[in-house]
């Protein structure tokens, strides 16, 4: 580790003087996987970000791991009123669960209006998607134990059924659920909770048929076996409506609806982890709505800026559920007030600019572009798929995918995100423009052309 001090950032100094070794300095001190870019927070535009060191522009199809719905420099986030509200909320960080502010009230009102679900009236806020999922699980464990007691079953709800290829975070309970890249969980203590197969299929003609496919029947049989074995202990079934980190794996609505039916039959709550699929990227506020599902709990984060849980439906069967009984779930800050102010403004812009419709239309454009690319390079690119802007394609293996990703960034200044063992995912801003999507596909096409002629 070097002892050299970083110079403080002076915004009127020449950019190259401000940040010569910032990436190396950070790499030597902070855990992470830093790109070789120093983001210029003042001069990005839409899905294009600028490198503070030399002004290089990168077309970013990752948008900070799917967490910046309006991209850079959106005029709606540049108003004097918004900037004053940010500063006011930033001077001190209140403990939101215990001290009311007008800012928190305005956030809750806006969230309920733009993305709210009347069937899920309870809200809980916390920082981080993993902690959001953890607290959804805690609500379910609390519920199941009380529900069992009401039925004369002296047993704690202490297990969470989940899917193969799930990613729910890297915190305490979620370590027992996450099973994508083994490095993320290897050797950490975990609970032995029931894991069932994840029968993902490519969206296509069979997508909306009600008849179950053989792999879906197999997964349902595995779920039924687990419910028969541990039914009174299983508090919830937790699922990503579209498995993001596992490789953009789409589960058919017919399968997930059947899982929901089975869980209801066995007194088990359903928890949709919408940390990645929620917040409008599918062209709907929540992916579970696009799939016609009715979860009891929804965990959210990323694009919403504030992470947390929405709850209702069967949770309400227990009057003193964990949303209502004091001290069952809480944290000091309960989300950050600055994030709430930013989230409020972003939600207002999503509403006033009709960005859900826009995301759905841009998703169609993107999918047709990705299909075109797959037709041109059938040996290299397969399985173009997407719901709204949550889109992906596959490469024959992870090595090629990683090489394409690196070359697209180095040669064409276009940034993509890997997903699962061999997929490339698209997570642009909801406000993405058609030219940004077509330019990014053109960069991918140019990279493939160069690789094919090597
Ligand atoms: C579906 C899902 N759940 C949970 C998480 C964890 O969120 P965080 O990284 O904010 O803890 C993620 C992060 O990618 C996710 O995609």
Describe the structure.
The chain has 454 residues and is α/β, with parallel strands linked by helices. The protein folds into two domains: 41-73 and 355-453, Aspartate Aminotransferase, domain 1, CATH 3.90.1150.10; 87-350, 3-Layer(aba) Sandwich (Aspartate Aminotransferase, domain 2). 37% of the residues lie in helices and 14% in strands. It has helices spanning 15-18, 22-29, 63-66, 80-90, 102-115, 129-150, 214-230, 253-265, 287-290, 337-352, 355-376, 398-412, 434-452; strands at 48-50, 57-60, 122-126, 159-163, 195-196, 234-239, 242-243, 249-250, 269-273, 297-300, 307-311, 382-387, 390-394, 414-415, 417-419, 423-426. A seven-stranded mixed β-sheet has the order 3-11-10-9-6-4-5, sandwiched between helices. A four-stranded antiparallel β-sheet has the order 12-13-16-15, with helices on one face. The chain starts with 14 loop residues before the first helix and ends with a helix. 47% of the residues are buried. The protein binds pyridoxal-5'-phosphate. Pyridoxal-5'-phosphate binds at residues 128-130, 133, 167-169, 240, 244-245, 273, 275-276, 301.
Any key phrases for this structure?
binds pyridoxal-5'-phosphate, Aspartate Aminotransferase, domain 2, L-lysine 6-transaminase activity, four-stranded antiparallel β-sheet, 454 residues, alpha/beta, 2 domains, aminotransferase, PyrdxlP-dep_Trfase_small, Aspartate Aminotransferase, domain 1, seven-stranded mixed β-sheet
């Amino acid at each position: 580790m070097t002892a050299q001090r970083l110079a403080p950032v002076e915004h009127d100094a020449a950019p190259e003087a401000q940040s010569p070794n910032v990436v190396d300095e950070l790499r030597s001190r902070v855990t992470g996987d830093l790109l070789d870019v120093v983001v210029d927070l003042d001069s990005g535009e839409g899905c294009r970000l600028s490198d503070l060191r030399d002004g290089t522009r990168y077309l970013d199809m990752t948008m900070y791991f799917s967490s910046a719905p309006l991209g850079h420099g959106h005029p709606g986030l540049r108003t004097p009123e918004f900037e004053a509200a940010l500063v006011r909320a930033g001077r001190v960080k209140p403990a939101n669960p215990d001290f009311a502010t007008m800012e928190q009230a305005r956030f809750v009102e806006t969230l309920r209006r733009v993305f709210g679900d009347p069937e899920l009236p309870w809200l809980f806020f916390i920082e981080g998607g993993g902690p959001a999922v953890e607290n959804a699980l805690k609500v379910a464990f609390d519920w199941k134990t009380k529900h069992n007691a009401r039925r004369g079953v002296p047993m704690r709800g202490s297990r969470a059924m989940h899917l193969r290829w799930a990613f729910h975070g890297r915190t305490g309970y979620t370590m027992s659920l996450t099973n994508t890249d083994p490095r993320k969980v290897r050797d950490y203590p975990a609970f032995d909770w029931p894991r069932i197969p994840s029968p993902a299929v490519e969206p296509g003609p069979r997508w909306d048929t009600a008849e179950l496919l053989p792999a879906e029947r197999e997964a349902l049989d595995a779920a039924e076996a687990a419910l028969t074995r541990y039914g009174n202990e299983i508090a919830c079934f937790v699922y990503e409506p579209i498995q993001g980190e596992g490789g953009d794996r789409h589960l058919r609505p017919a399968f997930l609806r059947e899982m929901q039916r089975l869980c209801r039959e066995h007194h088990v709550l359903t928890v949709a982890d919408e940390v990645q699929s929620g917040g409008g990227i599918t062209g709907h506020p929540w992916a579970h709505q696009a799939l016609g599902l009715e979860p009891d709990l929804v965990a959210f984060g990323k694009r919403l800026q504030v992470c947390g849980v929405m709850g209702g439906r069967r949770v309400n069967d227990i009057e003193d559920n964990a949303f209502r009984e004091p001290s069952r779930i809480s944290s000091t800050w309960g989300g950050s007030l600055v994030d709430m102010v930013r989230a409020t403004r972003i939600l207002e812009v999503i509403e006033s600019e009709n960005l859900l419709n826009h995301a759905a239309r841009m998703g169609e454009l993107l999918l047709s572009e990705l299909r075109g690319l797959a037709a041109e390079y059938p040996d290299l690119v397969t399985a173009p798929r997407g719901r709204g802007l949550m889109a992906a394609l596959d490469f024959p293996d992870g090595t090629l995918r990683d090489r394409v990703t690196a070359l697209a960034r180095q040669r064409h200044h276009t940034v993509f995100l890997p997903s699962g063992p061999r997929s490339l995912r698209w997570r642009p801003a909801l406000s993405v423009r058609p030219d940004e999507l077509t330019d990014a596909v053109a960069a991918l096409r140019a990279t493939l052309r160069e690789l094919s002629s090597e």
